[in-house]
Design brief:
With 376 residues, the chain is of the alpha/beta class. Helices cover 42% and strands 15% of the residues. The protein has 15 helices and 13 strands. The chain has helices at residues 18-32, 68-79, 110-113, 120-136, 145-155, 180-190, 209-221, 223-226, 243-251, 269-274, 290-297, 310-314, 326-338, 340-353, 359-373, and strands spanning 2-6, 37-42, 57-61, 86-89, 102-105, 139-142, 162-164, 196-200, 231-235, 258-262, 278-281, 302-305, 319-321. The protein has a 7-stranded parallel beta sheet with strand order 3-2-1-4-5-6-7, with helices on both faces. A 6-stranded parallel beta sheet has the order 10-9-8-11-12-13, sandwiched between helices. Helix 11 (290-297) links the parallel strand 11 (278-281) and strand 12 (302-305).
Length: 376
């Protein structure tokens, strides 16, 4: 079978979210599948860590960049129609026209549930293009049962047209760091010491970081916790509408113990996670939540929202909180701060739980969909 792929989501540096999903999926399809032929279409030359070309894996750079999915890609697919059996878009944007069956990945529908948290231009594009992609695709892949329900409900999609492929994490990178000196070196680089509570992810309103800061303030106001020297460390690059997040710690007069590190490379994240008392993601909505897996893989207990996909990700091995209730978030933090034995149990259980989340399994499930739609 000959498969065309939109590789642009993967073909970027400093990948997060959908970019990481696309990259890991292509990387593991490359390792898994030596019998089908792949033509990966790009706007620019492949970055250094993209899979190397070989007999069944080729890249085709086409332009112009502007309106690429609407014009450049469809025109090329028409030209290459006799060379392809299927086209796969591992992102929300399928080509405007495809002469062959199309499979598209839709990771979440946050823009429909929280439109106020998106730039107007991004929102218009996501709404119109994702609707088109879902309605015109032969099959849709998503990454949680929660996202599948959303796709079915919002787009009136038949359930058998949507397949869930749970995603994985980088098992080579994300492991417990046992060497305390390694942890200390990374913490020194960013100017803080243990103990600390960690958030890791993009700075954007949907992540609910403002309420996390408020919950942290509520925690340290209590006498028995005020003397522990706790800090809240917020790791991640600025997304959009992030200014309120940066200002909240100042407004609450705790900006000396709320640390913003900015973007951190993957090779530093295991030390930051391993050194933390806990990882907290009180997000209002997640299609999945890879950082939660990364935290659990480092042996770090997790506090997450009780909504969207996050209960699926943590199973019985995370503390679930109401993301709209500051006292609930504070209570989740307090539960783990005060109970070392609970932290240890959650650490060990989490290490066992995350072994089921594997990118090669994601690739196998995805490939089975592609081969079924492509008629193999």
């Amino acid at each position: 079978m000959r498969i065309g792929v939109d590789g642009n989501e993967a073909n970027v540096p400093d990948r997060v979210g959908s970019g990481m999903y696309a990259y890991q999926l292509l990387k593991h399809l490359y390792e898994l599948d030596t019998w089908n032929e792949y033509m990966v279409y790009l706007k620019a030359s492949p970055v250094v860590d993209m899979p190397r070309e070989r007999k069944n894996w080729k890249y085709k750079v086409i332009g112009p960049d502007k309106l690429w999915t609407q014009f450049a890609l469809p025109l090329r697919l028409i030209w290459d129609a006799n060379k392809l059996d299927l086209f796969f878009a591992p992102g929300h944007y399928a080509p405007r026209f495809s002469p062959v069956p199309t499979v598209v990945s839709v990771l979440d529908l946050a823009y429909l549930k929280f439109p106020e948290y998106f730039k107007k231009s991004d929102l218009m594009q996501l709404k119109s293009w994702t609707k088109y992609s879902v309605q015109n695709a032969s099959h849709v892949i998503t990454i949680s049962e929660s996202s599948k329900r959303d796709i079915i409900n919002f787009y009136k999609t038949p359930p058998d047209k949507v397949t869930v492929t749970y995603i994985g994490y980088d098992t080579e990178t994300f492991q417990p760091v046992e060497d305390q000196s390694q942890i200390d070196t990374v913490l020194k680089r960013y100017g803080f010491q243990q103990p600390y509570i960690l958030y890791l992810g993009t700075l954007q309103p949907r992540k609910n970081i403002v309420r996390l800061i408020q919950a942290f303030k509520d925690l340290i106001l209590q006498e028995k916790y005020s003397s522990l020297g706790l800090k809240l460390v917020i790791v991640g690059k600025k997304g959009w509408l992030y200014q309120e997040i940066l200002e909240e710690a100042k407004k609450l007069d705790i900006d000396d113990i709320v640390i913003f590190t900015g973007y951190v490379n993957d090779d530093e994240k295991p030390a930051l996670l391993s050194g933390a008392l806990m990882y907290c993601l009180p997000s209002l909505y997640e299609g999945f939540g890879i950082p939660v897996l990364e935290a659990m893989a480092c042996g770090t207990p997790v506090v997450v929202s009780q909504i969207s996909s996050l209960p699926e990700v943590v199973g019985e091995y995370g503390v679930l909180v109401d993301p709209y209730n500051v006292k609930s978030i504070s209570g989740g933090l307090k539960l783990l701060v005060k109970d070392e034995a609970l932290r240890e149990r959650m650490s060990q259980n989490g290490l066992r739980w995350v072994k089921q989340f594997d990118w090669m399994h994601t690739a196998r499930t995805t490939l089975s969909v592609l081969e079924r739609v492509g008629g193999k």
